[in-house]
Amino acid sequence: MAVGQVRTRVVHRLLLTASLAVGTLASFVPVAAQAAPLPAAAPRSIACIPGEATAADRAIADQLRPLMNGRRLGSAVSGRAIACARIIVARVKARDLPERAAVIAMTTAIAESTLKNHRVAHDHDSLGLFQQRPSQGWGSTAELTDPAYATDAFLKAMMRKFPGGGWMTGGIGAICQHVQTSAYPGAYSPEAHDAALIVSRLWSGGSSAVTGSAPPAVTDSGSPAATPVSPTTPTASPTPTGPFQRVTATAETEIGTLTGHHELLMADWDGDSHDDLMVVNGAGLATGKTEVRILNGTRDFTSLSLITATAIEATDERHDYTAADWNGDGRPDLVAVQKTGTDSGKVEVRIADGDSFRDLILDVTTSLPVDDRAQFAMVDWNADGRLDLVAVRTFGTASGKVEVQVLDGAANLQRELLPAIVTAEPVQDGMQVQVTDWNRDKRPDVVLVRKPATAEGKTELHVLDGAAKLSRTLVKARTLLGLADERYAVLVTDASGDKRPDMVVVQKTGTANGRAHVWVLGG
After folding, report:
1. In this predicted model, what pLDDT tens digit does every residue of 401-423 receive, in sequence order?
2. Architecture of the 55-203 domain
3. Strand 333-338's sheet: what is its strand order?
4. Among the CATH numbers 2.115.10, 2.10.240, 2.30.30, 3.40.630, which is that of 246-522?
5. Predicted model pTM
6. 129: burial class by Cβ within 10 Å (0-12, 13-18, 19+)?
7. Residues 442, 206: Cα–Cα separation, whole Å
8. In 28-130, where does DSSP find H-type helix?
């Protein structure tokens, strides 16, 4: 064996012996003397409220999850995210800013952080819900990880960059980008839908269904009367009889008060044989387009089934809306009728496909001159399988009577289906109109919701028989409802499922809890 080999083996043995000795020695070192384990890494984000999310926030996340479709948060929304969102909404309301400001802030926070309150910088020194940077003057680390401070900082920047309320119009994504000056300007718009959904749910707090209360009476000035009308007060019969004298159900909806240009419709959107409440917003907060929210009729309108922008551009008080299945696919489509202010000088009709409301399936200029005296509906008037456009003039007619005109759907609304009908009903400004098959004879009837002559009076429902060319009155009923002013929408549908039309009253504004409220008066 060579000398070099002997030396190598000796060295190897010495090293092995030393390592064993060290290992043996280490095994006898007292536990207290051993090195402490490395601490766990601090979480990259912290909760917006102590104790993580509440049960209520988790429940809201569960309700919204199936409706969310954004790229960043979407169906991953959690109770913890809702807890953060709640603070954003609270700070907007504390500044007396409208709901649109909350949608802008929420869109930004979703795009920037997916509603996580980041305490560790992800990009440069960006922190918190809005990924604001201390080095850019937004605030200190402690301030920017305080959701209330961060929201206030965003709102201040928004109002500074959009003086005079410029943020009230225009695309949500563009506004967010102008405030944030992000390297990814296209990141915001895809989150606006989810932001609007969350804000809508949080804006007025929780909701619950109740039964048995009656709609309040309203004074001549439009303010609530001191004593609400109910079946047990002296102003109503102790044992109410006849249609629309009894409250069969009430509910506080999932949406806040409906200010601005909103229209309420009833239609069975989800095909479950219960009419749903469709809320049409002429200029959506998130998109600037006409938007639709649908409240589920099987759940007493307390559950939101859909919120979406439609293919119809922003609409206003020059428009009427109705829900009708234009393309025969079993889903009610959204019909927007522009009755004044058109370039053509004619009434124009646009229809968004009810499957998603994202596709425009009709955009037509009719043969009817513009007319702000009319309220419009779409029904199959002559039973030819095509929807016709019905115009009901409720004021300003030469005859002094309610007049009805019908355009033929088979002719693409380019000709009258029959001569204008002059009814026996006197005109009344502010009258509400629906066209529906009241008596199930497969002929559309005209329902007139007439205001009482005095503040102490009651709203009346008059139904004109379509089979008799509106010359006969099917129903003339004095209802439990007092003066139905502009705060109320009155709709007719079989809400109870007994095959008899009920009267659905929606108080859009002025409720005690700030949420739209629904009463059903049994027919």
Report:
1. 999 999 999 999 999 998 999 99
2. Orthogonal Bundle (1.10)
3. 319-324, 333-338, 346-352, 360-369
4. 2.115.10
5. 0.65
6. buried
7. 41
8. 55-64, 79-94, 99-113
